[in-house]
UniProtKB/TrEMBL annotation:
Every GST C-terminal domain range: 89-214
Summary of subunit composition and partner proteins: Homodimer.
GO molecular function: glutathione transferase activity
One Pfam family cited in the UniProt record for this chain: GST_C
TM stretches of this protein: none
Domain GST N-terminal: residue ranges: 1-83
GO BP of this protein: glutathione metabolic process
Official protein name in the record: Uncharacterized protein
Amino acid sequence: MAPTLYITPASPPVRSVLMAAKTIGLNLDLQQVNLFKEEHKTPDFLKMNPQHSLPTLVDDDGFVLWDSHAIMAYLVSKYATSDSLYPSDIKTRALVDQRLHFDSGVAFRTLTQILRPMIFQGKKNVDQKDVDSALEVYSFVETFLEGREWIAGDSVTIADFSFISSLTSFNVAVKIEESKYPKLAGYLKRAECLPGYEANKEGLEAFIAIVKPLLK
């Protein structure tokens, strides 16, 4: 029996988990949740996940887990045939964890602060403060990629799935200029060749359909 993943396809965190699952060849039972209808706040969903966040995983033994970073680490640790996506080497894993925390606490948090007022509160533009916040994230990522092909080294890890989903979403609202961020732009081009990238592309199209009409 496949693990169940509750999703909304446009969500960057959802897309990161889908990329991880596709990369390791793991089939998931995908259950779509409509945020605009507040299906994530029903009594049954709140009983399962009191933070009412997506994605939420229910494994085949009933184990429930939320937060995309935790879900990816769990799925790869349990179902992958090697540790390459979440290395067992303590220093390499520590760097992957640092990048995951950066995505959670800085990159995705910034993206949410920019887009939540637009999607749910009717805001119609990205102001200069939002642009500056996004550009700061881009500058950090540009530095992270110094001397590296991928976000935590020369091999793809679960941290890349988080960064790819977040950064491709950022790019919809605040364009990533290749002349200013060449390493970041090159990174996203390489990402398009990854076996699991299609899982990001499909959800990104849904994300663009939601966000683009809100931009001036």
